[in-house]
Design a protein that fits this description.
Largest sheet: 6 strands, antiparallel
Distance between the termini: 30 Å
Helix content: 55-70%
Oligomer: single chain
Strand order of the largest sheet: 2-1-4-5-6-9
Number of strands: 14
């Protein structure tokens, strides 16, 4: 059961739910004007918040994603199998809808699904999986079933147009999807019911291909299965032949030796060029040194000393002459040494140039031999041809599948549909106990709302496009009757699912369900909900406008034991569920 709806904003008016019938009433405040409305009090928002906290996707239009609410942590406490104390609290924010916070830590590998140690943040998709497992008993692979879809039958949303028809929760919901989930809740073979989904998908594909047939280039793009079958056979044979050639192909040793020799020559040429670079740099430095190795004239010293008034003697002059001769000898020796080094380097450069010319000639000859031989090129070309042919075969196969789908078309789909209908009819006969249980309950509920003897039943049939579950109530087809058919159908589904462990123990209806319903049926519906939920150990939560409730009370319904302590009103500032308007 749902126990408490909260938020961490102090203005939010928390709702506490009990077992049995729970009524959230919106009334007109004493000081409200004719322009005030109870449409903004939060009745439908309560339903949206329950869905949000039970894993619904929240787009930008969702109430929890609105600017004034997106940072508020909303919370829901509910009964949970295996939880500490039997209850679990989930919290979620509109600003981060991809995750939820649980007050207990999941332990999927143990019998107790939760243990003390929270709170813990988990992905919303994991939370919906836990809901499917613990509230609906879904384990393992269940393609075609969705806990979110089944919750939408138990908590209908006016924003999804869920009150338009009993057997769908969304105007765009495929009939086969809705029927498969209802089949599970009512104890029928949901796998057979879900089989219509595959047929519908194939039929949609066939329709799209059928439209493509009108294209004048269809034959060139796809073609017929007979033509493509032959083309695939020939192409596969060519692939097989090319694969054998590639597998048997060998490069002769001579080509490998030539390839290695070409690599050695190339490395030698690169090494020679590197040595040349070093020698040229050294040669440049030596030539610069030759230029710098010049004689130094010391005759300038004598006039300098004379101007200073000092007369140098002959002995000093002789010494200057000796020094000058010694210096000139050093310069001549240095120039001779530098000239010899320059000659040696130039000889090495010339020798390596000649060697490179020889190596270049040899490399040209080796490369020409490799190019003329063509062994490596032949192997590469063969491999490329094989890859292209394999891609061509794969394209032909895709075209063949498309053509096969189109040509099989209506006949194959019709055969599969007939086969599925036959199996489903047999299953319905074998599950008479389940269909009888649901039909009897629905009839009982409908007769309680109107009068004994009113013809009311559920029709189960294997239709051409889905399992047909059609509730019938003998009536004038007014809007009020239609809404009460939904009430009886939902109550039947919830009771049957809960009895057999295929669904939770709660059912929630928005006040829109009671729009246009006669006051007598409102009173009887509320009395019936209170009686059935008490008998079955379940919970029924409904939102009501105060005038609808007052009409039921005037007819004898005692609402006092079932009213929530919070009463919403149309005061603009603080009368709604959130405690402020936005």
């Amino acid at each position: 059961m749902l126990r408490r709806l909260t938020a961490d904003d102090p203005r939010f008016r928390s709702l506490d739910f009990g077992s049995g019938l729970n009524l959230l009433v919106a009334e007109t405040a004493a000081d409200s004007s004719d322009k005030d409305s109870r449409n903004g009090t939060g009745k439908s928002s309560m339903v949206e918040l329950l869905h949000f906290l039970l894993g619904a996707r929240a787009d930008k239009k969702h109430v929890a994603a609105r600017k004034q609410l997106r940072d508020i942590f909303l919370g829901l406490e509910l009964d949970w199998p295996g939880a500490e104390g039997g209850r679990l609290t989930v919290r979620r924010r509109g600003v981060r809808p991809e995750t939820v916070l649980l007050d207990q830590r999941p332990e999927p590998d143990t019998d107790a699904i939760f243990s003390v140690g929270g709170p813990v943040e988990i992905a919303t998709v994991e939370w919906t999986r836990l809901i499917e497992e613990k509230l609906f008993g879904l384990r393992g692979e269940h393609k075609g079933l969705s806990g979110r879809t089944m919750l939408s039958f138990l908590i209908r949303r006016v924003s999804s147009h869920a009150f338009n028809t009993p057997t769908r929760t969304n105007g765009q919901q495929p009939e086969a999807d809705a029927a498969a989930n209802l089949a599970y809740l009512l104890g029928l073979d949901w796998k057979l019911a879900a089989g219509y989904r595959e047929i519908s998908a194939r039929e949609a594909t066939r329709r799209q291909l059928r439209q493509a047939v009108n294209d004048p280039v269809w034959g060139r793009i796809v073609g017929s299965t007979s033509e493509l079958r032959g083309q695939i056979t020939i192409a596969e044979e060519e692939v097989r032949r090319l694969e054998e050639q590639v597998k048997a192909f060998r490069v002769v040793p001579q080509y490998e030796e030539l390839k290695h020799r070409a690599d050695d020559i190339d490395r030698g040429i690169r090494s020679s060029n590197a040595q040349d670079a070093v020698d040229r740099r050294n040669l440049s430095d030596l030539k610069a040194a030759v230029t710098e190795a010049t004689d130094h004239d010391v005759r300038y010293l004598e006039p300098v000393y004379r101007e200073l008034g000092i007369l140098l003697g002959d002995q000093v002059k002789r010494r200057f002459t000796d020094v000058k001769g010694f210096h000139e000898s050093i310069v001549r020796n240095r120039r001779r040494y530098l000239a010899e080094e320059i000659q040696t380097i130039e000889a090495r450069l010339a020798q390596r140039a000649a060697e490179r010319e020889v190596l270049g000639t040899e490399l040209e000859r080796v490369l020409h031999t490799l190019d003329e031989g063509g062994a490596l090129e032949a192997l590469t070309a063969l491999q490329q041809a094989l890859a292209q042919k394999q891609a061509f075969v794969e394209a032909l196969r895709h075209r063949y599948e498309a053509a096969q789908t189109l040509e099989a078309g209506a006949l194959e789909i019709k055969a599969k549909r007939l086969q599925l209908q036959t199996a489903l009819k047999s299953d319905l006969d074998e599950r008479a106990r389940q269909t009888d249980e649901a039909t009897v309950l629905f009839s009982e509920f409908a007769q309680r709302l109107y009068e004994p003897g009113r013809l009311a039943y559920l029709e189960f049939d294997a239709g051409p496009s889905s399992l047909k579950i059609v509730p019938h109530v003998d009536s004038d087809d007014s809007r009020g009757i239609g809404n009460m058919v939904i009430f009886c159908f939902d109550l039947t589904t919830a009771v049957v699912a809960h009895r057999h462990g295929r669904g939770p123990d709660f059912l929630v209806h928005d006040s829109h369900l009671f729009d246009g319903v006669d006051a007598r049926q409102v009173r009887r519906a509320l009395e019936l909900a209170a009686e059935v939920t008490e008998r079955e150990g379940m919970q029924y939560i409904a939102t009501l406008n105060s005038d609808d409730l007052q009409k039921a009370e005037h007819l004898g319904f005692d609402a006092s034991p079932h009213l929530l302590s919070v009463r919403l009103n149309d005061r603009y500032d603080d009368g709604g569920l959130f405690g402020f308007r936005f």
